[in-house]
Write a structure and sequence with these properties.
With about 230 residues, the chain is of the alpha+beta class. It has a domain at about 1-85. The protein is about 45% helix and about 15% strand.
């Protein structure tokens, strides 16, 4: 019975998180294998600030192979797009709950694209990361939505300082008052002149001695499900 349950669990994980296992099976070079290892540990989404140097060093064939599996290389996140579907997010929420001995938390409403995580003080940032969301300054949102916000902000920044416009808040799915937190999280700083608040890009982040971009955002919980491979039935 134990063996059958273990086999069922393994098959369910492989079926519902199929892109992760397909990526592991690719004949990639060392850099690609390292990036896939980290993506699997993080259940499919990593901040560019943590893994951008690996993505930049990928061989073009490896990058193309990962792209065909649905890996998206954004300016803010590297993530598996197929794992943003609601069924995949629900399954990752279940895995997180099993790992932490917690009742399965409800997923953030699809109508609310960004969720203030302080509204659920019992849930750590690792939960939102485990289901595929990015956490920036206390807000959790989908990485594809974050990429759209970052692209819109870059377009506005080319013309100089820009204001926190309603169109940006709509892209992120937040109230205008929360937008400044997201803009700060993706590299912009607020400047107030003549009573008006605008935003300008910060200097590019410095790299540490190992060539890695210094991290930003919450790191205290570690990778959301780094011990996925250790899951066993009691």
């Amino acid at each position: 019975m134990r063996r059958r349950l273990q086999e069922f669990l393994r098959n369910e994980i492989e079926r519902r998180l199929a892109p992760l296992f397909a990526a592991q099976a690719l004949p990639l070079g060392g850099t690609g294998r390292g990036l896939v290892f980290r993506l699997v540990d993080a259940l499919g989404c990593l901040p560019v600030a943590e893994a951008g140097h690996q993505a930049a060093a990928l061989d073009p064939p490896d990058r193309a192979a990962l792209s065909r599996l649905g890996v998206r290389f954004g300016t803010e996140s590297i993530y598996f797009e197929p794992l943003l579907r609601a069924d995949a997010m629900r399954f990752r929420a279940l895995l997180w709950a099993v790992r932490h001995g917690h009742p399965v938390p409800p997923l953030p409403s699809a109508r609310r694209l960004a969720k203030p995580i302080e509204m659920d003080p019992e849930l750590p940032p690792s939960f939102y990361a485990a289901i595929g969301l990015r956490v920036l300054d206390g807000l959790a949102l989908r990485p594809d939505r974050l990429e759209r916000l970052a692209a819109a902000a870059r377009r506005l920044a080319r013309g100089g300082p820009f204001s926190a416009r309603a169109e940006l808040a709509a892209i992120a799915g937040v109230q205008p008052s929360a937008l400044r937190r997201l803009l700060g999280g993706i590299g912009y700083r607020a400047v107030i002149e003549a009573g008006e608040e605008t935003f300008i890009a910060r200097r590019r982040r410095q790299r540490d001695a190992g060539g890695n971009i210094r991290r930003r955002g919450p790191v205290g919980d570690g990778h959301p499900f780094a011990k996925l491979r250790e899951m066993k039935l009691a």
